[in-house]
Amino acid sequence: MKFCTQCGESVERRIPEGDNRERHVCPACGTIHYHNPRIIAGCLPIHDGKVLLCRRAIEPRLGYWTLPAGFMENGETTEAAARRETLEEACAEVEIDTLYTLTSIVHVNQVQLIYLAQLPQPRFAPSEESLEVRLFDEAEIPWDELAFETIRQVLRLYFEDRRRGRFPLRHIDIDRDATPSVRIHD
Amino acid sequence: MKFCTQCGESVERRIPEGDNRERHVCPACGTIHYHNPRIIAGCLPIHDGKVLLCRRAIEPRLGYWTLPAGFMENGETTEAAARRETLEEACAEVEIDTLYTLTSIVHVNQVQLIYLAQLPQPRFAPSEESLEVRLFDEAEIPWDELAFETIRQVLRLYFEDRRRGRFPLRHIDIDRDATPSVRIHD
What we know:
- Two copies of one chain form a homodimer.
- Chain A is of the alpha+beta class.
- Chain A has two domains: 1-35, Ubiquitin Ligase Nedd4, Chain: W (Single Sheet); 38-185, Nucleoside Triphosphate Pyrophosphohydrolase (Alpha-Beta Complex).
- In chain A, 16% of the residues lie in helices and 37% in strands.
- The first copy, chain A, is built from two helices and twelve strands; from the N terminus they run βββββββαβββαββ.
- In chain A, the strands form two sheets. In chain A, strands 4, 5, 6, 7, 8, 9, 10, 11 and 12 form a nine-stranded mixed β-sheet that branches. Chain A has a three-stranded antiparallel β-sheet with strand order 1-2-3, with no helix packed on it.
- The radius of gyration of chain A is 19 Å and the shape is elongated.
- The N and C termini of chain A lie far apart (41 Å).
- The mean pLDDT of chain A is 96.
- Chains A and B meet through helix 1, strand 8 and strand 11 of A and helix 1, strand 8 and strand 11 of B.
């Protein structure tokens, strides 16, 4: 951030009075500009025991496989965001089940929410955001062609939990250089 | 938003190519400015069966009672944010237990995460953000002096669940004019 969104002057970085961390502050109009983590909402859609994955048509990680997920927009709930992203990326209408993973991706300032979801009918299609969309058995999951470490963790946990028959909420913390930590919320 | 953060020119509102909603776009440098919901993280701290509440020293709702919670910052996990806010607002060190409520507050573009937390020692104090901090029995909760509808919902559910002895994750949707909807994730 270089310029103030309210008056167009150059911003500076300093700790505002009563605060304890540096912010972008406008010396002209006094506006303090806060930057906060963004939410990624998505689904793990299941049909007949198979998982729906999308092959990305856009950067980053064009050509790699992922779950349908994307940035939550203003004016919607987290579940609405997860449903919308699944419709936009996979042209699939899902029924949201439970929240399955909450992942803090610290080094990119994102929080990812993945919901378990039912895909009642095997209706899906590529879109502007996906080159290819298909259902995968566990044995077919393209582990070496997944787009994101966060998605690898979600899928790994899902197949483990499926064998146990329980899907408790998982808190996952991912930071650039650290091993991901997973915490079960039972 | 009136001016571009990257070049200082006046922004305009239009739908970028490949998008499906209006954004602030800079006609000079082409930057698309996205605005997304922010996360509020906080705790419901329990000591000896009592709940820790803070009386707000800052607007909005100065003088009203609330749970310790505030905006998640870049570079931290959701749990770290909840612990930090509890330390900043109540000078209390808690041990996070499980995620208890996830509230989409649609009309203000916020997602609130409240964790159940243990306060091992009854150590807490007012701060720059709180006029008063104290532990409340269920019978003492100041229902008519709570700062936010979201917090009222969380406390109401907590005391219900305590009688049942189970604390499943709750998804709460709140919009300006609608009755809050609560959904249990078991």
